[in-house]
Amino acid sequence: MTEQAGALDALFRGAVAAIDAGDTAALSQLLAAHPSLATERLGAPGIWLRDEVGDALEGYFRRPYLLWFVAGNPVRRERLPANIGQLAAIVAERARTAHADDPQEQLDYALGLTVTGRVARESGVQIALIDALIDAGARPGNGVGALGAANLEGAAHLLARGGQLTLAGALCLDRDADTERIARIATDDDRQIALVAAAVNGNARALTALIGMGIDIDAYSIVIHPHATALHQAVAADSLDAVKVLVEAGARLDVADKIYRGTPLQWAEYGGHARIAEYLRAAAQSADDNP
């Protein structure tokens, strides 16, 4: 780590500590003294961060901006401060006034991290944080990321703040009139995304509607968890009703996911979903008995 990189890392560590503590005064002082905190990415994070988030620094949290730390995703602490929306607004405003090269990327990605993680929701600050980021200029998008994280509250609030309503959103949020309208113009990809979103959320009613529209229920997902099928995701959601809808519609039981190479039954066994595992074993046995 170069001296310059080391200096930035130390500043980031102090600013992140202020965010964790909910200390608006300390955060504001650091940003006023060092505007680059709000504009530069942390390209050489120290052991303090590597110990906390590990492989995320080589994946979706690679070279993070300071603003991304407000989301609590990846998880470093189990709680976010109650004033996290105010802290996010402070960082976003400094990024704007310091003329960051890509403030839109900072804002949009911070919002995505917020609605796909669990800590903001479990801390009771998700809605305030969504509002703070959108008020600062983040685009609400289409809510598919939130749906893929089984975050219905977040998805609904993004729509309330001007987000795009998709077939997945209409179905998972039980917006029947919108579902009928959107289904008429939905593409194959729209239906496939909706299928997995419904499975992730254990929504048997939405799955039934999609199967009635004509869809490949055995296809690997796109956009949402693309390594697995809808049946895998219904198992992971621990929704026996959703699993039954898919199996009774003819979903294959022997398809392995692309990462762990597990079948839906193996996912059920690994996840401790005993009722689903029992049902899938019986379904497999019935298929063997009645080829």
Question: Explain this structure to me?
Answer:
The chain has 291 residues and is mostly helical. It folds into two domains: 3-139, no CATH class; 168-289, Ankyrin repeat-containing domain (Serine Threonine Protein Phosphatase 5, Tetratricopeptide repeat, Alpha Horseshoe), CATH 1.25.40. It has 17 helices and no strands. The mean pLDDT is 95.
Brief synopsis:
The protein is mainly alpha-helical and 291 residues long.
Index terms:
Serine Threonine Protein Phosphatase 5, Tetratricopeptide repeat; 291 residues; 17 helices; mainly alpha; 2 domains; elongated
> How many structural domains?
2
Put simply, the count of helices is: 17
Helix content, binned percent: 55-70%
> Could you give the order of the helices and strands?
HHHHHHHHHHHHHHHHH
> Can you count the beta strands?
0
* Termini separation: 63 Å
Q: What structural category do the secondary elements indicate?
A: mainly alpha
Share of residues in strands: under 5%
Taking Cα atoms only, what radius of gyration do you get, to the nearest Å? 22 Å
